[in-house]
């Protein structure tokens, strides 16, 4: 017969606690591989939270790829500890200054874009369906009013900038409704929870020189400083240096450059696995 005291008894004799012993036994019995995985995940989140990175998103609400980038960056704001700065610019001006052409005006690109957006919409979990009047819109109208409206919000009502930006994309790419006219702009503001007096004020501001100048400055900054040629243009400021990325499919590379970890298009879901 083994007369040695039990482990809880040993703990008591040594001045310990039975509960502490049971806790230790739990960790001893853990699968080493599983424990390593847990520790790796914990270490990843600690590292991601340590360094705050400023990221500028230059975007135009006519761009579906900007919509994908916008939703992805807002999802990663906490996991990557981002100081995300939304920078509305005018894509028409970017195209002109960089001698570029919209992909929808190049037949082969337009055909590919239709398939590409369908796949990306499913991958990112962001519903996108270009309206039937898309080509007519980009050839006869512009997003100058919604982009100036966003600038006005950034100046005076910054708490609404993110949700109104999202609202323009939803109205155009999900509801398939106009976003160019002032009535349409006002509807987006209402849907985003803005008060009528704030909507009226911001609409009045889009006619002001300071708003026009600010949109022009954002556009020139993107083109002249960051060599932008389309949307979205994303600038991550890492170790005092601007790292420029184009499009909505460079996030894995961006994560590597910033010392973060890419967890897929839906980081909140990935963290639960």
Automatic annotation (TrEMBL):
<feature type="domain" description="DSBA-like thioredoxin">
    <location>
        <begin position="54"/>
        <end position="257"/>
    </location>
</feature>
<dbReference type="GO" id="GO:0004602">
    <property type="term" value="F:glutathione peroxidase activity"/>
</dbReference>
<dbReference type="GO" id="GO:0005777">
    <property type="term" value="C:peroxisome"/>
</dbReference>
<protein>
    <recommendedName>
        <fullName>Glutathione S-transferase kappa 1</fullName>
        <ecNumber>2.5.1.18</ecNumber>
    </recommendedName>
</protein>
<comment type="similarity">
    <text>Belongs to the GST superfamily. Kappa family.</text>
</comment>
<keyword id="KW-0808">Transferase</keyword>
<dbReference type="GO" id="GO:0006749">
    <property type="term" value="P:glutathione metabolic process"/>
</dbReference>
<dbReference type="InterPro" id="IPR051924">
    <property type="entry name" value="GST_Kappa/NadH"/>
</dbReference>
<dbReference type="InterPro" id="IPR036249">
    <property type="entry name" value="Thioredoxin-like_sf"/>
</dbReference>
<dbReference type="GO" id="GO:0005739">
    <property type="term" value="C:mitochondrion"/>
</dbReference>
<dbReference type="InterPro" id="IPR001853">
    <property type="entry name" value="DSBA-like_thioredoxin_dom"/>
</dbReference>
<dbReference type="GO" id="GO:0004364">
    <property type="term" value="F:glutathione transferase activity"/>
</dbReference>
<dbReference type="Pfam" id="PF01323">
    <property type="entry name" value="DSBA"/>
</dbReference>
């Amino acid at each position: 017969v083994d007369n040695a005291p039990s482990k809880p008894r040993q703990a008591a004799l040594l001045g310990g606690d039975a509960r502490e012993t049971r806790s230790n036994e739990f960790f001893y019995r853990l699968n080493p591989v599983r424990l390593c995985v847990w520790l790796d995940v914990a270490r990843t989140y600690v590292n991601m939270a340590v360094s705050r990175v400023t990221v500028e998103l230059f975007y135009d609400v006519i761009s579906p790829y900007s919509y994908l980038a916008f939703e992805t960056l807002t999802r990663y704001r906490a996991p990557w500890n981002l100081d995300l700065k939304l920078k509305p610019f005018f894509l028409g001006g970017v195209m002109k200054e960089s001698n570029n052409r919209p992909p929808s005006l190049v037949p082969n690109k337009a055909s590919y874009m239709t398939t590409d957006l369908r796949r990306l919409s499913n991958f990112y979990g962001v519903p996108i369906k270009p309206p039937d009047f898309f080509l007519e819109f980009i050839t006869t109208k512009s997003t100058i009013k919604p982009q100036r409206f966003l600038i006005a919000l950034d100046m005076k009502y910054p708490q609404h900038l993110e949700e109104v930006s999202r609202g323009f994309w939803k109205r155009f790419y999900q509801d398939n409704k106009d976003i160019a006219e002032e009535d349409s702009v006002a509807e987006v503001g209402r849907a985003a929870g803005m008060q009528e007096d704030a909507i009226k004020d911001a609409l009045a501001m889009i006619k002001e020189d300071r708003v026009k100048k600010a949109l022009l400055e954002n556009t020139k900054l993107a083109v002249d400083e960051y060599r932008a040629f389309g949307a979205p243009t994303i600038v991550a400021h890492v170790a005092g240096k601007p790292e420029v990325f184009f499009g909505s499919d460079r996030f894995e590379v961006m994560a590597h450059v910033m010392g973060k970890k890419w967890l897929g298009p839906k980081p909140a879901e990935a963290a639960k696995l």
